């Protein structure tokens, strides 16, 4: 393929981070080029745990169901320890459910990375604005930071080269000719040995840990009774983490050596790793029926000094800018979540929905201010988590539960910014309370997952599955009991009218004109979740903005939800779980990435408007 | 493609019935050829309701999750009738849940036929023993019934011709040369105008109904409030059935004319159908935003005189042998279920698991004895169902609920045969009671769906999703409370030992040798569902036959289930739903198609053995 001369975004690396980023630009006219040194899509790869928040992201990309169907579920954790009677060997201490109530869904599933990449890649293929070029490496990059204030400028210039090869391509040309390409933005999703990171002079800060681990994927032949559960096997000689996978396989993380004089992981043999495993598992047996993959590694815990450079024209995502142990299953998840944070901001700007270059740059700076603290927290967590493995702990249970909750992302709270407004009257995030491991409705936190019932047909949806990654913000109006409380119904009518009104008094410019406005013109999708008796409400009697009419498609029936019982999935108890008063309600600005931008009074139209004025989306 | 000179099974027609039949021969060495006059796979098609039993079949083929993910859910039914105050127009009478408690799952989903075919076809592609030839029609068939007693004979000889075409194929050959092919069996899945049916001199018995209907798939522009629910709109001028679909579309079945002097459906225009719809919907508006498809038809209600001929060497499946109205959504479902009934019997015989030609023929005769009554029942039901549409009825609610249950297949009970043993001491099916619309555990009925928890890892499965279409029978041992009841534990040990034992005293020949026996050698898979406290049971302490060891894969961890609470899907209450005593238990022979072959005492090893001796699988 001949390269385009210029693109909007050049992404280095078509792994999980690069593919997740690219998925933000489906159904747009933003020109994206991914380059990767690999000869083509990965066809095999290691198992990886998918956290519930990552599965939510796949749902917003429209590929959640396929990925979930292929994934292996993990629902029980067995803790084993040294025998209490002083004898040799280990014994079962307890079995606990691998469940975090706050999530309201499965905490983690397993699917190998190549399949995750496959689904994200397939999802891009229908979109000709997104191209992927394999067998390609960047050779040089120049970024003219002076141009970064000009919205339409191409400050990035990159030379691309074919991967050195003696082969000729289909047309008889050598494939290693260099090509020059200009881009508005460049994003390094090129992994732990990131080429772009080095070019940007971003340094990784941190250390290597003092242990060498082996990791083995195999079909086990063993009389160990809990081999199909997640197991923590804590013997005097170290702790094995065992994770079941599909294809009858399990993965084992095995501590082989620790201390100050460590062997080079390259020198470890499979036999030595298995010996270390057998010592810990004793008196149970362990043989490999077949070995799918094995490796040995030493963990580096490091975070980049910067996540973006050159006036927010260059970005680093995922492993390119932070590394840590794979044990908590955070690697691929954090990479995808980094990309998910960055993508909508670029989309909004490249679609010219932000009215000034300054506001655009301010928004892009939140990528670093939001994601770098997450990486630092993750490293701090990882240190404690590895210690939990290194030595038996009296507080193991408590620490373990904290760890389970941490890995869900429940503790992530982005700091206040133009994209995260604190409550009216609150000036410091500290005033919002700790809220660290709770699924609550707080600006800067992810909108908690919940289940609602469609007013129109009685089927259910989980909210994140409904919030497709279109680039639109959502105003989620929790209107309360609009049948029992006439004052709430009145407030809803007033709010609905102002949201739909054109001109500077309303927000019609963002919500789309009600007639003929398709998803392209809609920057703010208005959704309604009431808790009134569902059969007392007629959808078509609600304000227009919640069931807009289109001349080609009639009414939009999919914007109004009840917090109600359902035929098959029970009751979502949304108001209760999110602690919203049924007599008061509230209005929540949800960012395109599913994070809470603002929590407002249900009739605080000015608050809504102020949010979008702050972002530069509305004058 | 050059045709093979001979195949085991020749299937005429690669629609839903033919593809479902072919799916039975994955992972086998049975040579199957499908021919179809179409130039290739269907790329578009009408929406069709998928009944829960059909979705269960897809699960046993391993394609349930993909199909469910694409399907549209229907969960509410609105009944509208003429205004009670005597005014013009219709009013809402009630909204009911589209739910049949006995099923324990969604009664019906919608997915267009082309997508259903797509998934069944994709599922065949990895299996080179199954080939599909498009653009091909059979020109003649000869069946030598004298050979039908010789198991390995090829009594069927067919001439195949290319569909008349002026084009040449890739290699420059004309494509309409005739080819001769021999087959052991021929199956007509070639639809309502079946070519094979005519060749076999099978006649359709029955009539055309006295109504002409229009059917329209469109994006509606309407102020009718329940347009996203399934609706029965009963006006004085007739009843519309409205079914929501994906892509914002709905399907409408509209009565246009009835009586003795009917127009030819070909003469109906779209405008006339829409006029008829508007008359019924009045005072609500109806316009088409876009029309995906429309048609007009008159229903023929007919059943073939025979379902198999020529000593059970030729078979007719689906629409080829019964036709009825599409309104109850039974067409594609019944076709797939016919095929599902026939496929495993052919597989068993062609794999030489039946030891005599006579026993094989006896088994194949059950295709007609089991499926023809279903078709007759369906026609009888259809007549009543259409009447329900034709005129308002005082018993509408009761009749409607019966209809919902009927369409689930809950009333299907295959008659006693070598494959359906009545309980010991019971000589007539009448003695089993009516049980017609109930999900109970009765020989000849489908094993009711239920949810269990894997002993090994705490995850759940629905039983039919676990009973993959491998061709194996299952012995489902409901062992009861084997912790609380030591006598049950003793019975289980005895049964387990005999099931595993080699030679004429045991059933090891069918259950597979415990060491190294893979799925190919296993004709009877032994599964265990206990209702003891799950954490009081160690999987590896149960009899070997329920967790067999393989030298390559270690233990099989996926055969033992608890009737227990789960982390995310609640409790299946299997013993309660199926009315099995916890202190007694029972053993159930489940046929490869998920129907109950026999219900026995938990330690009735001779009953199990007798079942397989009767089928000719064990001497």
UniProtKB/TrEMBL annotation, chains A, B:
Keyword Flavoprotein recorded: yes
- Phenol hydroxylase-like C-terminal dimerisation domain spans which residues? 413-615
* Keywords of the record: FAD, Flavoprotein, Oxidoreductase
Q: Which CDD domains match?
A: PHOX_C (cd02979)
Q: Name one GO molecular function term.
A: FAD binding
Which Gene3D superfamilies does the entry link to? 3.40.30.20, D-Amino Acid Oxidase, subunit A, domain 2 (3.30.9.10), FAD/NAD(P)-binding domain (3.50.50.60)
Residue ranges of every copy of the FAD-binding domain listed in the record = 7-380
Sorted alphabetically, which Pfam families does this protein's record hold? Answer: FAD_binding_3, Phe_hydrox_dim
The keyword Protein transport appears for this protein: no
InterPro entries hit by this protein: FAD-bd, FAD/NAD-bd_sf, Phe_hydrox_C_dim_dom, PHOX_C_sf, RIFMO-like, Thioredoxin-like_sf
**Family statement drawn from the similarity comment of this UniProt entry:** Belongs to the PheA/TfdB FAD monooxygenase family.
**Record protein name field:** FAD binding domain-containing protein
């Amino acid at each position: 393929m001949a390269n385009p001369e210029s693109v909007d975004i050049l992404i280095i690396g078509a792994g999980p981070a690069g593919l997740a980023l690219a998925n933000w630009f489906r159904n747009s006219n933003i020109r994206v080029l991914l380059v990767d040194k690999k000869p083509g899509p990965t066809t095999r790869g290691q198992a990886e745990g998918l956290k519930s928040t990552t599965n939510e992201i796949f749902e917003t990309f429209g590929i959640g169901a396929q990925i979930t169907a292929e994934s292996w579920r993990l629902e029980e954790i067995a803790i084993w320890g040294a025998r209490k009677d002083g004898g040799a060997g280990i014994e079962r201490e307890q079995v606990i459910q691998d469940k975090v109530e706050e999530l309201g869904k499965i905490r983690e599933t397993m699917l190998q990375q190549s399949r995750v990449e496959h689904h994200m890649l397939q999802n891009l293929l229908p979109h000709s604005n997104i191209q992927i070029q394999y067998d390609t490496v960047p050779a040089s990059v120049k970024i003219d930071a002076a141009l970064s204030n000009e919205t339409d400028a191409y400050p990035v210039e990159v030379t691309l080269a074919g991967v050195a090869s003696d082969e000729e391509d289909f047309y008889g040309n050598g494939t290693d000719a260099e090509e020059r390409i200009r881009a508005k933005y460049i994003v390094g999703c090129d992994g732990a040995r990131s080429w772009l990171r080095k070019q940007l002079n971003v340094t990784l800060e941190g250390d290597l840990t003092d242990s060498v681990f082996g990791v083995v994927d195999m079909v086990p032949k063993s009389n160990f009774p809990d081999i199909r559960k997640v197991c923590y096997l804590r013997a005097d000689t170290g702790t094995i983490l065992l994770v079941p996978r599909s294809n009858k396989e399990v993965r084992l993380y095995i501590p082989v050596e620790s201390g100050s004089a460590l062997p080079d992981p390259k020198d470890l043999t499979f036999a030595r790793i298995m010996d270390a495993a057998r010592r810990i598992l004793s008196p149970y047996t362990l043989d490999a029926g077949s070995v799918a993959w094995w490796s040995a590694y030493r963990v580096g815990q490091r975070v980049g000094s910067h996540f973006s450079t050159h006036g927010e024209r260059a970005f680093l995502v995922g492993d390119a800018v932070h590394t840590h142990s794979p044990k908590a299953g955070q690697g691929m998840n954090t990479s995808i979540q980094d990309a998910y944070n960055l993508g909508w901001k670029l989309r909004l700007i490249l679609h010219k929905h932000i009215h000034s270059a300054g506001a655009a740059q301010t928004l892009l700076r939140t990528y670093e201010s939001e994601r770098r603290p997450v990486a630092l927290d993750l490293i701090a967590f990882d240190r404690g988590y590895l210690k939990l493995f290194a030595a038996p702990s009296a507080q193991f249970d408590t620490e373990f539960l904290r760890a389970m909750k941490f890995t869900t992302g429940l503790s992530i709270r982005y700091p206040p910014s133009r994209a995260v407004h604190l409550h009216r009257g609150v000036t410091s995030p500290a005033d919002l309370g700790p809220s660290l491991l709770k699924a609550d409705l707080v600006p800067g936190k992810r909108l908690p997952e919940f289940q609602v019932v469609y007013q129109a047909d009685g089927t259910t949806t989980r909210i994140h599955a409904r919030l497709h990654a279109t680039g639109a913000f959502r105003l989620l109006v929790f209107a309360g009991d609009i049948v029992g409380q006439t004052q709430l119904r009145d407030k809803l009518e007033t709010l609905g009218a102002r949201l739909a009104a054109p001109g500077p008094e309303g927000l019609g410019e963002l919500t789309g004109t009600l007639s003929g406005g398709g998803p392209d013109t809609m920057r703010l999708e208005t959704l309604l979740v009431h808790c009134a008796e569902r059969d007392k409400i007629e959808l078509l009697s609600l304000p227009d903005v919640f069931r807009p009419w289109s001349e080609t498609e009639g009414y939009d029936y999919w914007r109004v939800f009840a917090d109600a019982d359902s035929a098959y999935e029970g009751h979502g108890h949304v108001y209760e779980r999110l602690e919203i008063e049924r007599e008061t309600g509230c209005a929540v600005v949800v960012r395109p990435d599913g994070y809470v931008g603002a929590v407002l009074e249900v009739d605080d139209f000015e608050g809504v408007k102020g949010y979008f004025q702050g972002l530069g989306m509305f004058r």
